[in-house]
Structure formats: C-alpha cells, structure tokens
Amino acid sequence: MSKDLHSNVKQMLGLSPVALGPTGASAGKIIDRQGYGGVEFLIGYGAVTTTGSVVTALLKEGDVTGTLTSVADSDLIGTEALAGLPATTPRTSGVSQQVVKRIGYKGMKRYVQLTLTNSGVTSTGLFWADALLYNPHVAPVANP
C-alpha cells in the first residue's frame, strides 16, 4: 500500500459554489463514504462584503440518503462552530478573505452531508466545499 496522500484520498465536490441570500441555506451533495474510513470537508469562503452575516456549518449523517440527522459532536473532528464563519466586519481584503476552514467526520454512517446557513439579513459572498474521503479500504485510489 502506498503511503502518499495522493493514492489514499478521493476528492469530491461537497457543495457547489453558492452565494447565500439573507437567512438562506444551501445543502451540499450527499457523500457516499462506503469503502472509506472518514471524510474531511474543506470549506472555502470568498470575499464577504456585508457586516454581521454569520454562516454556520452543519453535518448530517445517515444509513440511507432520505433520513439524514445531525452528527453527534463525538463523531466530528473539529467543531461545526470552528468550520463556520462568525460575524465580523466585511471580509474583502487581506487575511480575512478567501478563508478555508475544515471539519471532519469519523462516524460509522454511510452517508454524510454538509449544509451552510446564513443567519444574516443580507446576502453573503461565494462559498463552496470539497469532500476528501480518506483511509480507503482498497488503495491506491483511482484518479479521478
């Protein structure tokens, strides 16, 4: 078994690029993690031109795709709070824009989904997420 990262992860689009409207939410793709030990979501936050918008991340899990429920904190690597975007001044320049945050799932359910929700009163910038499936049962993982 190869020890390099390239041969031991599978990258999938977890959430298509989206600008969240006021009090809006966007549910990502349901990730089938069959054959993998876990999944890491990498969440990209573009420039946010508004003040006070709060984006929260929520992970759901399930044995079937139609009945996903919130993931217990003990099955997360990191926290949903740290993966979200707290209320700040506008993020249009410097280190506060183009931020990437992450949250991992180590539970036993087959399906996992990330949802981002804006609780602000104005629209936010562009967000997206990739899902990295890791610890494959069979490696190397095919590319793509």
Question: How would you explain this protein's 3D organization?
Answer:
By secondary structure, the chain is mostly beta strands. The chain has one helix at 80-83; strands at 9-19, 25-27, 31-32, 36-45, 55-62, 69-70, 76-77, 99-105, 111-118, 126-136. The protein is 3% helix and 44% strand. It has one domain: Jelly Rolls, CATH 2.60.120.380. It is globular, with a radius of gyration of 16 Å. Strand 5 and strand 6 form a beta hairpin. The strands form two sheets. It has a five-stranded antiparallel beta sheet. Strands 2, 3, 5, 6 and 9 form a five-stranded antiparallel beta sheet that branches. The two termini are 18 Å apart.
Per-chain topology:
Elements: E1 9-19, E2 25-27, E3 31-32, E4 36-45, E5 55-62, E6 69-70, E7 76-77, H1 80-83, E8 99-105, E9 111-118, E10 126-136
Antiparallel strand pairs: 1-10, 2-9, 3-9, 4-8, 4-10, 5-6, 5-9, 7-8
Name some characteristics of this structure.
144 residues, mainly beta, Jelly Rolls, five-stranded antiparallel β-sheet, 1 helix, globular
Stretches where pLDDT falls below 50 for ≥5 residues?
Answer: none
Tally the helices: what do you get? Answer: 1
CATH architecture: Sandwich
The radius of gyration computed from the alpha-carbon positions, rounded to a whole number of angstroms, is 16 Å
Mean pLDDT across residues = 87
Q: Could you give a short account of the major beta sheet? A: 5 strands, antiparallel
